Amino acid sequence: MTEVTMTVNGESVTKDIPDNTLMTGFLRDVLKLTGTHVGCDTSQCGACVIHLDGSPVKACSIFALECDGADITTIEGMADPDGTLHPVQRAFRDYHGLQCGFCTPGMVMTASAMLDHTPKPTEDEVREHLEGNLCRCTGYHNIVRAIMAASGQEVAGSAAE
């Protein structure tokens, strides 16, 4: 057992954990933050994307010990404390960028990090950036529309379509 301390969604946490604890296990099993999904455990699907010091990473590909001292944001930390959704979360809702919802946390985390670095991406840039995130339901069309809308760009059709 090793002690690890990090900031998760704005709160400092210190826990004793086995050295081989993956970040997905730390978040889901130790902290009970179950919004970070485990889809493959092989770093292929992107359902487990979190922000590590502001950068998107697949939480199934890193040990919690590697995050000692880090600032972690999960999907639970994206909305404001009063419950107001992050612009990407709102756009996913408004533009039907989800179906079953399993990939949605990872998609939102990946998209928000992309928009932090590329505030006005092209549709091709959005599609390229999502390459490491798999969705088996939507065909990505509405996911891309949602991200474009979150960037403040015009989106063909209305949010109600």
UniProtKB/TrEMBL annotation:
Residue intervals of the 2Fe-2S ferredoxin-type domain: 2-78
Chain coiled-coil ranges: none
The keyword Metal-binding appears for this protein: yes
Pfam families reported in the protein's UniProt record: Fer2, Fer2_2
Record keywords, A-Z: 2Fe-2S, Iron, Iron-sulfur, Metal-binding, Oxidoreductase
Keyword S-adenosyl-L-methionine attributed: no
Record InterPro entries: 2Fe-2S-bd, 2Fe-2S-bd_dom_sf, 2Fe-2S_ferredoxin-like_sf, 2Fe-2S_ferredoxin-type, Beta-grasp_dom_sf, Diverse_Oxidoreductases
Lineage top rank: taxon: Bacteria
SUPFAM superfamilies: 2Fe-2S ferredoxin-like (SSF54292), CO dehydrogenase ISP C-domain like (SSF47741)
GO MF annotation terms: 2 iron, 2 sulfur cluster binding; metal ion binding; oxidoreductase activity
Name this polypeptide is given: Carbon-monoxide dehydrogenase small subunit
Gene source species: Allosediminivita pacifica
